Amino acid sequence: MRAPQQVLREIYHAAVAAVEPRRAVLDHCRLDGDMLQVGERRIALDPDGRVIVVGAGKASAAMAQAVEEVLAERISSGVVVVKYGHLAPLHRIRLLEAGHPVPDAAGQAAASAIMQALSGLSARDVVIACWSGGASALTPSPAQGLSLADKQAVTRLLLASGADVHALNAVRKHLSQLKGGQLARRAAPARIACLVISDVVGDDLSTIGSGPFYPDHSSFAEVLSLIDRLKLRNDLPGPVLQLLQRGAAGLIPDTPKQGDACFAQVHHQIVASNRQAIAAAAEAAQAQGYRPLVIAKPLVGEARLAAAEIIERARLIARKGDRACLIAGGETTVTLTGEIGRGGRNQELALASAALLDGSCDISVLAGGTDGNDGPTDAAGAYCDGETVARAHALGLEAAAHLARHDANPYFSALGDLLLTGPTGTNVMDLTLALITPPR
After folding, report:
1. Of 34, 358, 366, 373, which residue has the fewest beta carbons closer than 10 angstroms?
2. How far, in Å, CA of 82 to CA of 107, rounded?
């Protein structure tokens, strides 16, 4: 019988391969003479017009690579920005790197380059936008009166608060010059095809990359209310609080909403999502001889609570004697408190699972981000089973202590149980896999 860890790693890699960005774009785009087909939409390429390619996100380089294959010399110019190291070879499109999850000066310069590329366009021009997870942090363009340092401070506050991506991006949109539909406003009246790899629950186009080409559903007033629910008002930089208050009072324009003329020529096409990764994981589990059981509800909320949910479900299956693989997709959060160590939401979920599984012999868990990065570490996630806690204890490592300070990375590193993939080039949230192998 093959080792559970090897089986889980192969299932994870099969899921990630199924959402490879280049292939995903090529599956949805083709050129037929002077007509570009994007999903069900056909876009005529005017011989006197330009084709501009822009993009942002961890998968945008590989997406742009596919666009180059489709359009080749028809591309007039372009610029995409990725997280440091998430590269792919490009020939006609400029490739930039920047910081994530906290924005940096390189990202601010990249955002300016994208806005410049979309300036002065006409109805004859076509914009191909390649957007994926990570785009929000990679394109900081502070609203008037704000600095990059202001945006960095707000990002750190929100990440530490445990706010989910929907809340995080609602705030970002109202502190930016390009998010929340504002790039659509800048590029109008050009025709826009926005290719999207989804990294958010429900594939909400207004949230993915903070929806720069999509109507914004949130308002300044709602963002200010959110800040109060998170109890962050007193911690915000003064200029940020002043901007939100002025916006909530109607003293400055809000982001463009549904029905705005700037969206008349915008088409969005989701080319890959967590659902595809889950389907591929289920197929791989079946091929390995395990009955795939997909949790329909996305895995969200605190990582430790998600771990408890996964282990409870896995134990119910184990009691029935089933040989199965429980598969969940989503994106959990971690609220940072007290002393802070080194880790990420997937590693924390795995460590919480290890504590719950201590002494069990029939359940193994792998939790990993599909982008290859979990928190500020070089790991995608980690593996655990019923022997993890005992093995770590023998090395002088205590699960409870590492959990208390959110320090899962060195714990699993010492055991050799980190999931180390390097940047995968894609990003469709996370996968949590629980392998149930009843003793024979």
Report:
1. 34
2. 9
Q: Which residues, 6+ apart, have CB-to-CB distance to 440 below 8 Å?
A: none
- Percent pLDDT > 90 in the chain is 93
CATH code of the domain made up of 4-10+275-436: 3.40.1480.10
Tokens of 439: 């003793």
164 or 293, which is more confident? Answer: 293
Specify whether the backbone of 324 is left (phi greater than 0), alpha (psi in -120 to 50) or beta.
Answer: beta
331: Cβ contacts below 8 Å, ≥ 6 apart: 164, 165, 199, 200, 201, 298, 299, 300, 345, 429, 430
Could you check whether 4-10+275-436 and 20-141+176-218+255-272 share the same CATH topology? no
d(CA 55, CA 317) in angstroms, rounded, equals: 43
Give the domain ranges of the chain: 4-10+275-436, 20-141+176-218+255-272
Cα–Cα distance measured from residue 58 to residue 256, given in angstroms and rounded to the nearest whole number: 26
* Alpha carbons 24 and 43: distance in angstroms, whole number: 19
Q: Which amino acid is at 172?
A: R
| pLDDT tens digit sequence for 348-373 | 999 999 999 999 999 999 999 999 99
CATH architecture of 20-141+176-218+255-272: 3-Layer(aba) Sandwich (3.40)
- pTM > 0.85: yes or no: yes
Q: How far is residue 86 CA from its own chain's centroid? A: 13
User: What is the length of the chain?
Assistant: 440
Of 56, 55, 27, 58, nearest to 370 (Cα)? 58
The tens digit of pLDDT for each residue in 103-149 reads 999 999 999 999 999 999 999 999 999 999 899 999 999 999 999 99
- The token pair at 186 is 């800048």
Position 1 scores a pLDDT of 55
CA nearest neighbour of 306 among 418, 424, 143, 431: 431
Tokens representing 2?
């093959």
* 328 CB neighbour count, 10 Å cutoff: 25
Between vectors from CA 429 to CA 426 and to CA 434, what angle results, nearest 5°?
115
